[in-house]
Amino acid sequence: MHKTRRLFVKLLHYAIENPNTDYLQLKNPCGGEIGQLIQKFSSEFSSSISQLAFKTYTSRAVKRFFVVSTITLIGLYLKRDSPDSTLEIIFDNLESIALGSAGIIFLLESEDRRKRDHYEAWQVINLAQNQPSSGGRVQALQDLNQDNVDLEGIDLHGADLSGINLPFGQLARANMKKAHLDHANLNKANLVAAHLEGINLQSAHLEDSNLQSAHLEDSNLQSAHLVGANLNHAHLENALLSNTNLKDANLEFAHLEGTVLYEVNFENANLGYAYLQCTNLCRANLEGAELGRGEMEGAVLHHANLKGASLHKACLKSADLWRADLEGAWLCFANLEGADLSESNLKNISWNDKIKWTDVIGIETAKNISPALQNELSSLGLLPKNTKR
Questions:
Q1: Among residues 363, 335, 367, which one has the least CA distance to residue 351?
Q2: Cα(321)–Cα(309) distance, rounded to whole angstroms?
Q3: Are 260 and 242 in contact (CB under 8 A)?
Q4: Percentage helix, strand, coil for the chain under 3-state DSSP, each rounded to 5
């Protein structure tokens, strides 16, 4: 490449010293000194390009030199039939050469600019660490996410990121304790094992996000959108989830002890093996939900919709099911010891003789008890015999 540059410089020097030379019209490019120079330059240049293709030249100056040189030579070739001298051709087309060169240089340096932008974005984020608010941090994070930069393990604890837009964000194992992400867009984000204790995600969008094994203790998820989200093995102890939409979400083995789940939508959600002891599920929609083997001891389910829900082998010991709708629910092998079923709807429930009814409360006020179930309860002394329900 160095030889090619020297040849090109020599060509330009020759053109300056011999401005009237009409060598571009030579039929034999090898005729004379200039012809030999053109031949050498062409062979050296094409050989270098084919072998290296600019890959070994990372210097911006080198790249720009070759771009300008190439554009200039192409212009000279296209004007080879012109009666003007070489210098006249070059100066007459300076604007075109400049524009063409600038466009190609812009494209060639796009990767360098992207790296430079990423470096500056990380600087903004790092400088804002431990500061609650920073105007540039939100934009920096959004820019990095837009370029698919992996943000795994990032430290954003206590940061004010309200309304941030990070769909598909790679935030596994991120530290966002006590951060503010209310109204944020985290749809389909990867938050596996992230530390989100005390975070504010009120009204945030987390549809189809992956929160497996995430820590959300004491967090605020009120009115959040978590349709189809994966919360397998997630920790949500003492979190606020009132009016949250968890339709079709996976909460298998999730920890929800002491959580406020008032009017939460769990329609068709998977809560198998979930820990729901002492949770507030008043008016929650659990229609079609999987609650098999769930731990729901002491849970409050006033007016809860459990239509078609699976409570197979679930522990509902001392649970409060006052006016709960259990129509079509599957209760086989469930533990209802000390549960309150006052005014609950037991229409078409699936049951067997393995259900534990010991000390059940309010069963005499329950509605739509089938004759078979009535006989079973009567034999256990929980209902008077031959009483129509």
A1: 335
A2: 14
A3: yes
A4: 30, 10, 55
Smallest Cα–Cα separation from 42: which of 74, 83, 17? Answer: 74
Q: How many residues does the chain have?
A: 389
- For residues 307 and 286, what is the distance between their CA atoms, to the nearest angstrom? 7
Three-state secondary-structure class, residue 378: helix
Q: Which residue is listed with tokens 């604890």?
A: 157
* Structure confidence by residue, pLDDT tens digits, 169-188: 999 999 999 999 999 999 99
SS3 51: helix
Predicted confidence (pLDDT) per residue in 357-385, tens digit: 999 999 999 999 999 999 999 999 999 87
What confidence tens digit (pLDDT) does each residue in 61-119 have?
Answer: 555 555 556 655 555 555 555 555 555 555 455 556 566 556 555 565 567 677 888 88
User: In terms of Cα–Cα distance, which of 28, 69, 22, 27 is closest to 45?
Assistant: 69
SS3 (DSSP) at 87? helix
Q: How far is it, in rounded angstroms, from Cα 185 to Cα 204?
A: 6
The single-letter code of the amino acid at 44 is E
Q: Distance between CA 71 and CA 96 in Å, rounded?
A: 9
State which amino acid sits at residue 71: I
Taking alpha carbons only, the member of 140, 218, 228, 143 closest to residue 189 is: 228
DSSP state letters, 132-168: S--HHHHHHHHHHHHTT---TT-B-TT-B-TT-B-TT
Phi and psi at residue 280, to the nearest 5°: -100, 105
pLDDT bucket at 15, cuts 50 / 70 / 90 = low
Phi–psi pair at 355, nearest 5 degrees: -70, 140
Look at residue 117 and give its three-state secondary structure: helix
Rg (alpha carbons) of the chain, rounded to whole number: 37
Q: How far is CA 23 from CA 79, 91, 315, in A?
A: 12, 17, 96
